[in-house]
Every structure is written in C-alpha cells, then in structure tokens.
Write a structure and sequence with these properties.
Chain lengths: 217, 271
C-alpha cells in the first residue's frame, strides 16, 4: 500500500525544499535577533517614545496570527508601499519581524534579570550606558537567554512551513508539489514530518542541556 | 588620617543637597565638605539617607536640588527645579571615572576573571593599553593580598576577597577619592577585618575617603571626621571623639552605645 520509491525518485525536490527551509530559518532568525535587540533596547530606553513604540511593536506581532501577517505582507504590503516586493522578500520580512517581537521579549526580560548593582558598578567606573550594556550587562544576559532563544528558534523553523502558502518552495511546498503529480500524500508528508523531527528533536535536547548549564552559572 | 589642610580648596563641597522620592524626603538639605586626604565616616541608623547621600556624590542618584563643587569647580547644580549645570552625560562619566566606589554587595562582574574585573575600568573607560593596565592591576591585587587569585572567577571567592577585589577595581582607575557604601555589612563577621585592614592601609596612604559604615570602631580609629545623619539631615559633624565618645545629643548617644563592642575588635587591626 505504501510506495516509498516515489520519495527516492523525487528526492532532489525534497532536499532542495529542506535547504530552502533551513535557509529561511537561519536568515530570518539572524535578522530577527537584530530587530529583537533594537526593540528590546527601545523598550528599556529612558525616553518614553521609544519605550512606547517598542511596546506597540511587540504587542502587534504577538497578537496577529503569523499566517494572516504573512499573507498581508505578500498581498497587501506591495499595494500600501507601492513597491513591487518579491515573495522571497515578503517572506523574509514577515518572518523576521514576527520572530523579532518574540526575541525582543526574551532579550528585554534577560537584560532586566541582571542585578542593578552591575549597572551601578559599571556607571561608577565612568562607563556610558552603551559601554555598560555591551561589556557588562549583555554578556551576562545572553548566557541566561540561550535556552529561551533556542526554543524560539525551533518554533521559527516550524513556522517557516507557512511560507508554502505564498509559494516559496520550502520543504512543505515541495511535498505538496510532489504529491500533486504522484498522488502519494501519505508518503510525502510522512517524509516531511520525519525531516522536521530528525532536525528538531536533537536541537531540543541540545537546548535543554544548555538550559541546565545556564541554570548552573 | 591626615590632618585636613584648611588653606586648601576642598575636594568636594556639597551644599543644600535634597533628594525626594515622590512625597518622601530622603535628604533634606545636606551641607558637607570633604578635604583632600580626609577620611569622613558617614554614620546613622538605617534609612537615615547615608547611602543616598553617597550615591548623590557621583550622581548615581540625581539630587532633587542642591550643588556639588569639585576642586573649586561647580560640577552639579539644581535649584528651583532648574538644572543650572546642564551636565552632559560625558561630563558625568568623566567625573565618575575619577571617583572610586565600593558597594555593599561588591557588584563584581561575574563573567570576568578577578584580573579582568580590575582591568575593566581603564580598558573600557580610559581606553588604556593592556600592558600597563595589567601590571598596575597585578600590583593592586598584590596590595590587597590577592595576587594568587588573578585568574579565578568571582564566584570562587569569599565575601571578604570579593570586596578586596572590588577595592582594587576602583583603585585601578587612580581615583582622586573613594566612596565606600557599607563595605563590610554583607560580610561574615570573621571576614570584616581583612576588608577594614585594606581600607586602613588606603587611609594611611592619604586617600580621600567617604565611608558609609556601621563599624563605629573604624569611624573612631580611622576617620578624621564623623558625620552623623538622622532622618536625612546632619545631626553632628566633627572629630570622632566629639561625635562618638561625647555624643552631643541623646539620639546619637543611644546609637553609639553599640560602639563599645566593636571598639575592642578594632584594636588589634590598628597595629
């Protein structure tokens, strides 16, 4: 009843889909991290305006379904901006901003978890706010934030499957493409699930070990 | 330790310093002068504003009003809610870099070795090259008796050792004065002596020190002046014997009664 040979026959499509999925995961996570850091710093600013803007940013993305946001970015954003945006760019922008909001919350909480005495000691030496952040606060906060950041990145990899609805050829899109001409959805989607589990289960364990390490020091 | 030279310009002059948190007046008009080489002990019960006053000197807290003059140069002034000095953040940083501070809870940087902690100020704030910085840091660690601990991390040190590292960290900026915020209050009793001894050594070298402390023995034996704070105001300011042995008010007398126990403890350290 199963015909696994169709997977072997179309494996180049699946591998290409996997590469696309990984590429989008890595690129949007890195851009998202940068966005998250900027938004977190805005939220921790001593001025009211950036604090407020940061809050709005985070609440916007945490309360909009990713699929809705992704479709909006693809269909509506080009109309609003008047710029012709490729689907790849729309996908990267949408996913980066979305994960950026979650990263921002993790970074903000991590920075705020550092004892205020560390800031006191840095400023008393004559450091600027920026120097204190870069040399003293962030290095300590990052260590604590590794577990939640890796957790969010795992979610981000799963979220890239939504890119298939705007026809970006990720793993899921390739699978539906293969099943459209082989009529073998069972085998193909089983393979997709297996790919994700094979990558994410080890990563989850790695994150958990980092968490145990982070809790120690 | 050094008799204040009256003809010299005071190192720090504080005038009319007030600090309120909402409706609570923590400091209500402090006038305080610290001369070069002077050791001034700030004593008083908890909540009297000692720590707030200390933190106002290097502007870790921004006073609500008042004036701070450093070496005869107006540094900070707020009057009638108006910032007369209009300090840039750069100017505040530059001033802080010349004033060392030691905290009750040490606040060492836990992600850096002992040596890196001591080198951090000159490296980041002054942009000093590593070689002279490291040499001076090692000398300072030797001076506080911790040369063998340079490569350890703070979590491997006792409280007394941590506090001595934090003194070395502050000294490595070659400060013109040192602020101590209850430097021995978080220590186990048997570790208090090693930190006080380090501070005594510093006082003998002529370092200007403003010390918030509950160690009245230290105040009596080491300080040139004792300033007694009560409810955010200065209740007494004078030589240690005047304030601590013949307390001018009943309030101070009650506070000082605790002192006789610690005086005995200080004697062997002074030798």
């Amino acid at each position: 009843m199963f015909d696994w040979t169709i997977l072997v026959a179309n494996q180049h499509l699946l591998w290409w889909g996997l590469v696309t999925t990984l590429k989008y995961t890595v690129v949007t996570s890195l851009i998202g991290l940068l966005i998250g850091l900027l938004v977190a710093l805005a939220q921790l600013s001593r001025f009211r305006a950036p604090r407020y803007l940061g809050r709005v940013f985070v609440e916007f993305f945490r309360n909009i379904p990713l699929l809705v946001w992704l479709l909006w970015s693809y269909y509506a954003l080009p109309i609003f901006t008047g710029i012709d945006i490729s689907k790849e760019l729309a996908g990267v922008v949408a996913l980066s901003l979305y994960v950026g909001a979650y990263y921002a919350e993790i970074l903000r909480a991590g920075i705020q978890s550092i004892d205020l005495g560390q800031t006191d000691a840095s400023l008393a030496l004559g450091m600027s706010d920026f120097q204190a952040m870069r040399r003293i606060i962030l290095p300590q906060a990052l260590r604590r934030m590794v577990p939640p950041l890796s957790g969010q990145t795992i979610i981000q990899m799963k979220n890239t499957t939504l890119l298939s609805v705007i026809t970006i050829p990720d793993l899921l899109y390739q699978a539906s493409y293969i099943s459209s001409f082989t009529y073998r959805p069972m085998e193909v989607y089983t393979a997709v699930a297996a790919f994700f589990l094979a990558i994410l289960v080890p990563l989850t364990y790695l994150a958990r070990r980092l968490e145990a390490k982070g809790a120690q020091g | 330790m050094n008799a204040g030279n009256a003809s010299e310009t005071p190192l720090i002059e504080i005038a009319g310093l007030r600090k309120s948190y909402g409706p609570v007046d923590v400091l209500q008009g402090i006038d305080l002068t610290v001369r070069r080489g002077e050791v001034v002990a700030l004593v008083g019960s908890s909540g009297s504003g000692k720590t707030t006053l200390l933190r106002c000197v290097n502007l870790l807290e921004t006073p609500s009003s008042g004036r701070i003059v450093v070496e005869g140069q107006p540094f900070f002034e707020i009057a009638d809610g108006e910032d007369k000095a209009r300090l840039s953040r750069k100017a505040i940083g530059a001033m802080r870099s010349r004033i060392g501070m030691v905290f009750q809870h040490f606040n060492l940087f836990p992600h850096m070795s002992v040596l890196a902690n001591v080198m951090e100020g000159p490296r980041t704030v002054l942009g000093e090259a590593d070689a002279p910085n490291r040499a001076r840091a090692m000398d300072l660690l030797a001076k506080v008796g911790l040369a063998d601990y340079a490569d350890r991390f703070p979590d491997r040190l006792s409280g007394g050792q941590k506090q001595r590292v934090s003194i070395a960290r502050a000294l490595n900026m070659r400060p013109m004065m040192m602020l101590f915020d209850e430097p021995t209050s978080a220590l186990d009793p048997e570790l208090v002596g090693e930190v006080l001894k380090t501070m005594i050594g510093l006082a003998r070298e002529g370092m200007t020190m403003l010390v918030v402390t509950h160690e009245l023995g230290f105040a009596l034996e080491v300080a040139d002046r004792v300033v007694f704070l009560d409810c955010g105001a200065i209740a007494a300011d004078g030589p240690p014997t005047e304030v601590l042995i013949y307390p001018p008010t009943e309030r101070i007398r009650a506070f000082v009664n605790r002192f006789h126990e610690t005086a005995a403890f200080m004697k062997p350290l002074m030798r």
